[in-house]
Every structure is written in structure tokens, then in C-alpha cells.
Amino acid sequence: MEKQNVLTSLLILGVTGVFVYALSGSAYAQSNGQYSPLIQRLIEKFNLNKTDVDKIVQEFRTERQTEMRKSHEERLNQAVKDGKLTNEQKNKILSKFDEFKNKRDEFANLTPEERQKKMQEHKEELEKWAEENDIDESYIFGFGRRFHKGFAKGFRFGQGL
After folding, report:
1. Mean pLDDT, residues 123-140 taken together
2. Measured between alpha carbons, how far apart are the two ends of the chain, in Å?
């Protein structure tokens, strides 16, 4: 039972991480009009066509988002099966993630400070929404506050596993 809770939390954390990564990557690319430094270096080193790189990056992001969505749905389905969530709550969570995904363009042209403020507002909105819908925040934020304590105690990079 505990193992399943950990797996569910890991999945949700992974989904959240992908969203944050997608936001930061999109924001970086749009704010600088170029790729991340690593991709830019690869383009220059191997004299790659930027259009081809764009296509590959977009395909990768789409595949990754699809995989994460599928995995997230499987975990939520298991939570429904275990009686931890209702089917209605599961559908609300999935809709909320879709809503957030559709809002990510709003973050693209913000300064880091504005983006941080907007993310904090979004987090507070999600907390309120989860409470209103009687959904445990762990299904929204992954490990929640316990996870951050783990980093401080040596769990970073698999040290505590």
C-alpha cells in the first residue's frame, strides 16, 4: 500500500516536472529567440538545419507529453480503483492539467520574477481548487512539502534510496 502511494506520488511529481520543464524551455526559447545552450551548441558543432532540429524537438516534446499523460491517467485510474479518488475527481484532475498546459503560453514572455509570481498564484489557485473538490494535494503536487524535506536530508540524486 505504501509502495503504491510512493509510486503515485512519483508519477505526479514527474508530470509536474515535465510541465515545469516545458514551461521553462518554452520561456527560454521564446525570450531569447533561440534554443537552450546545449541544443544551440549541438546545432553549431554539427552544422544542423534549425528547421530539422525544431521538428525533432517538437516531436520529442509531444511524445514525452503523451507518455506522461498516459502514465498519469494509469495512476489516477489505480487511485480510483483503490477508492482513494472518485472517477469524477480523476476527470477533474486531468481537466485541470489540460487547462494548465493550455495556459503555459502566458508564461513565455514574462521575466523570471513575473513568472515566479505567476507560478505562485497558480499554485495557490490549485491548492484552493483541490480543497474545494476534496482532492488530496498529493494528486496535484506529487510529494508536496514532504518531498522538499527529503532533498534537505540527502535524498537528492538517489543518495537516500
Report:
1. 90
2. 18
Residue 154 neighbours by CB distance under 10 Å = 9
Q: What is the pLDDT of residues 27-84, one digit of tens each?
A: 444 444 567 888 889 889 999 998 999 899 899 989 998 998 898 899 899 999 999 9
**Domain ranges for the chain:** 2-158
Asked if 12 and 139 touch (Cβ cutoff 8 Å), the reply is yes
Model confidence pTM above 0.70: no
Secondary structure in 3-state letters for 70-134: HHHHHHHHHHHHCCCCCHHHHHHHHHHHHHHHHHHHHHCCCCHHHHHHHHHHHHHHHHHHHHHCC
> Do the Cβ atoms of 108 and 62 come closer than 8 Å?
no
Cα 26 to the center of its chain, rounded Å = 13
The set of cell numbers assigned to 126 is 490549485
